[in-house]
């Protein structure tokens, strides 16, 4: 059922796409549905759009299904980004990065006039933090960066449980050559403050708190789609 809900959310968001748009394409299982549906619409309608993918995986999928791609170097201002989320609250604040593409996702979303999130109902939460918060860090000075993050969380009264994301026996490496710490916080009562504090730590490249970027969301449930904000 969850996969069908993701597809329904993606299909609803596709209605926001107009000819001539410059689009940002998200990463993850829900965003994959959007990319495939966009490819079908391009083939059926000869829809003219150009898209910036947020990961190498999305780039490969877009090329496979006939979605024209470009880069932010060629198109630095986008009309719309459509992406999934690991969590979204009623104020359209997000946790993203479960797939490891948070840095490129945030850059692309920030370059867009609008961002629409597509998700099934399990991702809609009252308080962010049940899903581990990804923090992308440079490999150099890893132990020092970890120590600084733990110190920050302790000072904020948050859980100091964090794990270096692994892929097999080795650290997971992002498309940008960095590592990811996953912070198991349980609840984040002041996400704006935490976002600002994490960004100040040397060695932290980016974090998965997306605040002030999402303009609307499609939340799919068995009985229909809920729209948050403005599509």
Q: Any overview of this molecule?
A:
There is one protein chain. By secondary structure, this protein is an alpha/beta fold. It folds into two domains: 2-122 and 211-222, Rossmann fold, CATH 3.40.50; 133-205, ACT domain (Alpha-Beta Plaits, 2-Layer Sandwich). The protein is 31% helix and 28% strand. A hairpin with a 5-residue loop joins strand 4 and strand 5. It is globular and about 55 Å long. The two termini are 24 Å apart.
In a nutshell, what does this entry contain?
The chain is of the alpha/beta class and about 230 residues long. The protein contains 6 helices and 15 strands.
Helix and strand arrangement:
Elements: H1 2-14, E1 22-25, H2 29-45, E2 50-53, H3 56-64, E3 78-83, E4 87-88, E5 94-95, H4 102-110, E6 112-120, E7 133-137, H5 142-155, E8 161-164, E9 166-167, E10 170-171, E11 179-184, H6 191-199, E12 204-207, E13 209-210, E14 216-221, E15 224-229
Parallel strand pairs: 1-2, 1-3, 3-6, 6-14
Antiparallel strand pairs: 4-5, 5-13, 7-11, 7-12, 8-11, 9-10, 14-15
Helix pairs in contact: 1-2
Search tags:
alpha/beta; Alpha-Beta Plaits; 31% helix; Rossmann fold; 2 domains; isomerase; 15 strands; ribose-5-phosphate isomerase activity; single chain; six-stranded mixed beta sheet; 231 residues; NagB/RpiA_transferase-like; Ribose-5P_isomerase; 28% strand
């Amino acid at each position: 059922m969850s996969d069908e809900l993701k597809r329904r959310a993606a299909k609803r968001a596709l209605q926001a796409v107009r000819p001539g748009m410059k689009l940002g394409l998200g990463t993850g299982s829900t965003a994959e549905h959007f990319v495939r549906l966009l490819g079908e619409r391009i083939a059926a309608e000869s829809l003219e759009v150009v898209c910036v993918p947020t990961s190498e995986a999305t780039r490969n999928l877009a090329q496979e299904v006939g979605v024209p791609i470009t880069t932010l170097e060629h198109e630095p201002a986008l009309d719309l980004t459509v992406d999934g989320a690991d969590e979204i609250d009623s104020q359209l604040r997000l946790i993203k990065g479960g797939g490891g593409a948070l840095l490129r996702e945030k850059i692309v979303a920030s370059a867009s006039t609008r961002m629409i999130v597509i998700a099934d109902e399990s991702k809609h939460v009252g308080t962010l933090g049940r899903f581990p918060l990804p923090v992308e860090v440079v490999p150099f000075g890893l132990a020092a960066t970890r120590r600084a993050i733990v110190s920050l969380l302790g000072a904020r009264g948050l859980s100091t449980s964090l794990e270096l994301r692994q892929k097999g026996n080795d650290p997971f490496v992002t498309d940008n050559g960095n590592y990811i710490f996953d912070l198991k916080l349980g609840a984040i009562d002041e996400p704006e403050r935490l976002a600002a504090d994490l960004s100040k730590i040397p060695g932290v490249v980016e974090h998965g708190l997306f605040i002030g970027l999402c303009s609307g969301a499609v939340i799919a449930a068995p009985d229909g789609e809920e729209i948050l904000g403005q599509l």
